[in-house]
Amino acid sequence: MQRYIDEVDPLVVDRAAGARFFDVDGRSYLDANSSWWVSTLGHNHPRLVAALARQAERLCHVSLAGVTHEGAAKLGEELVAVAPPGLTKVFFSDDGSTAVEVALKLALQMWHNEGRPARRRFVALDGAFHGETIGAASLGGVEVFRKPFAGVLLECIHVPTPEGDAPSDAGYARAFAALEKLLAEGSDTIAAVVLEPLVQGATGMRMYDAAYLRHARALCDRYDVLLVIDEVFTGYGRTGTMWASERAGITPDLMCCAKGFSGGMFPMAATLATRRVFDAFLGAPERAFYYGHSFCGNPLGAAIAREVLAIFREEEILVKAQPKAARITKTFASMGEIPGVSRARSLGMIGALDLSKGAGYLGELGWRVYAEARRRGAYLRPLGDVVYVAPPLTITDDDLDALLGIVEESVRAALR
C-alpha cells in the first residue's frame, strides 16, 4: 500500500472553487470527498466569502465569557429552528472532535449533578469513529486511532453494527439484542450511547437502516440513558435530509455538528442539547459547565455558519441535491457489477464500493484507484479498499458526470 502513496508527489493546492481545486501548476482536480467532508457547499462559495469579509470589517473576535455578540445569539436561534424538535440549547466549539468532547463531558457531569456519578461508561458501535481528542478517541472502534492511547481513555463498550440489507436480516436482530442486553444489565453505569447515524464514515462508509436508530432511542428512553448522535459527517444534507436522524424520526439528547456547519470556511462546531440536559446544570455554582475554548462561538465563524443556513434555505440545497443523489445511486449500483467489486451502496450524496479482498488487501487496491483517479483529474482518497465519493451538494451536473466517469474508469483500471 505505501508504495502507491510514496510514488506520487503530494498535491500542492493553490486555489479552489466549486467542486474543484487547482494545484500550483494550474491543473484542476475534482474534489470527490469535499476535502474530508467539510466543503458541503463547494469551495469558496461567494456568499460565504462575502460573509467572512463583512464580519472581519466589524468584529473578528470576542470571547463568550461574560460577554456575547449578536451573531452567536442569532446562530443559536437559527440552529434550534432547523434541529430535530426538542434540541433547544446550543454550546459552540471548534470542530467535530470538540463537539463530541463537549457531549461526553455534558453527559458525565449531568449524571454527577443528578447524584449518579457511577454512570461514566459509554457505548458505541464497532468500527466507530468520533474524533481525535482523548474523550472522542475513547469511543473509537478503529484501533489504529485508538490503540496508542488505550491506557488513558474513557471506558467504552462496543456493540455490533447492524449488518444486512434490511432490518429483518439476522445481522440486525443480533445488533438489536446486543444493545438491549447491555442496557438492561448495565444501565446504572452507562452515561450515554453514542452513534454515527446511518453511516459510519471512517470505518468504510458502513451503512445501516434507520430502524436501528429508533431501536436505540426506545432503549435509551426505557433505561434512562442519554442518546448522543454524531452528525458531524451526516448532517447538513449529506444523507438527503438536513440531519440523518430525521430519517428515523428521532430526537437525541445531545447532537454534535461540524464540518458542513461552516461550509469548510472556518473551524466551528456546536453541540445541541435538550432542556432536560440543560436543567441539570442549574443551581449552585459547582453545578455549572466550566468548559470552553478561546474561539468558541467566535464572530467570524458565527457569521459564516449563519450564511450556510441561509444558503440552504434560500437556494433549496436539499431539493436540488436529490437528482444528483439519484445519479450517484445509479452509477454505484452499476459499478457493483464490475468483477472485483464485492459490494456497492449509496445514501444521499454518498456512494461507496468495496474492492474484493481476494484481489488485494490492506488498501493496496484502494490506493491504485487513487493513483488512477489522480491521473484522470480527480482527488479520490480511499478508506482502505473502500472507494467512495461524497462530493459537494452543489456540484454541477457536468462535474458530477465527469467525477462518476473517472471513478468507474479508475476502478476498472485498478482491477485489471
From TrEMBL:
<feature type="binding site">
    <location>
        <position position="381"/>
    </location>
    <ligand>
        <name>substrate</name>
    </ligand>
</feature>
<dbReference type="InterPro" id="IPR015421">
    <property type="entry name" value="PyrdxlP-dep_Trfase_major"/>
</dbReference>
<dbReference type="Pfam" id="PF00202">
    <property type="entry name" value="Aminotran_3"/>
</dbReference>
<feature type="site" description="Participates in the substrate recognition with KAPA and in a stacking interaction with the adenine ring of SAM">
    <location>
        <position position="6"/>
    </location>
</feature>
<protein>
    <recommendedName>
        <fullName>Adenosylmethionine-8-amino-7-oxononanoate aminotransferase</fullName>
        <ecNumber>2.6.1.62</ecNumber>
    </recommendedName>
</protein>
<comment type="function">
    <text>Catalyzes the transfer of the alpha-amino group from S-adenosyl-L-methionine (SAM) to 7-keto-8-aminopelargonic acid (KAPA) to form 7,8-diaminopelargonic acid (DAPA). It is the only aminotransferase known to utilize SAM as an amino donor.</text>
</comment>
<feature type="binding site">
    <location>
        <position position="230"/>
    </location>
    <ligand>
        <name>pyridoxal 5'-phosphate</name>
    </ligand>
</feature>
<feature type="binding site">
    <location>
        <begin position="96"/>
        <end position="97"/>
    </location>
    <ligand>
        <name>pyridoxal 5'-phosphate</name>
    </ligand>
</feature>
<dbReference type="InterPro" id="IPR015422">
    <property type="entry name" value="PyrdxlP-dep_Trfase_small"/>
</dbReference>
<dbReference type="GO" id="GO:0009102">
    <property type="term" value="P:biotin biosynthetic process"/>
</dbReference>
<feature type="binding site">
    <location>
        <position position="259"/>
    </location>
    <ligand>
        <name>substrate</name>
    </ligand>
</feature>
<dbReference type="InterPro" id="IPR005814">
    <property type="entry name" value="Aminotrans_3"/>
</dbReference>
<comment type="similarity">
    <text>Belongs to the class-III pyridoxal-phosphate-dependent aminotransferase family. BioA subfamily.</text>
</comment>
<dbReference type="InterPro" id="IPR015424">
    <property type="entry name" value="PyrdxlP-dep_Trfase"/>
</dbReference>
<dbReference type="GO" id="GO:0030170">
    <property type="term" value="F:pyridoxal phosphate binding"/>
</dbReference>
<keyword id="KW-0808">Transferase</keyword>
<comment type="subunit">
    <text>Homodimer.</text>
</comment>
<keyword id="KW-0093">Biotin biosynthesis</keyword>
<dbReference type="GO" id="GO:0005737">
    <property type="term" value="C:cytoplasm"/>
</dbReference>
<feature type="binding site">
    <location>
        <begin position="293"/>
        <end position="294"/>
    </location>
    <ligand>
        <name>pyridoxal 5'-phosphate</name>
    </ligand>
</feature>
<keyword id="KW-0949">S-adenosyl-L-methionine</keyword>
<feature type="binding site">
    <location>
        <position position="292"/>
    </location>
    <ligand>
        <name>substrate</name>
    </ligand>
</feature>
<comment type="pathway">
    <text>Cofactor biosynthesis; biotin biosynthesis; 7,8-diaminononanoate from 8-amino-7-oxononanoate (SAM route): step 1/1.</text>
</comment>
<keyword id="KW-0963">Cytoplasm</keyword>
<dbReference type="GO" id="GO:0004015">
    <property type="term" value="F:adenosylmethionine-8-amino-7-oxononanoate transaminase activity"/>
</dbReference>
<dbReference type="InterPro" id="IPR005815">
    <property type="entry name" value="BioA"/>
</dbReference>
<feature type="binding site">
    <location>
        <position position="36"/>
    </location>
    <ligand>
        <name>substrate</name>
    </ligand>
</feature>
<keyword id="KW-0663">Pyridoxal phosphate</keyword>
<dbReference type="InterPro" id="IPR049704">
    <property type="entry name" value="Aminotrans_3_PPA_site"/>
</dbReference>
<feature type="modified residue" description="N6-(pyridoxal phosphate)lysine">
    <location>
        <position position="259"/>
    </location>
</feature>
<keyword id="KW-0032">Aminotransferase</keyword>
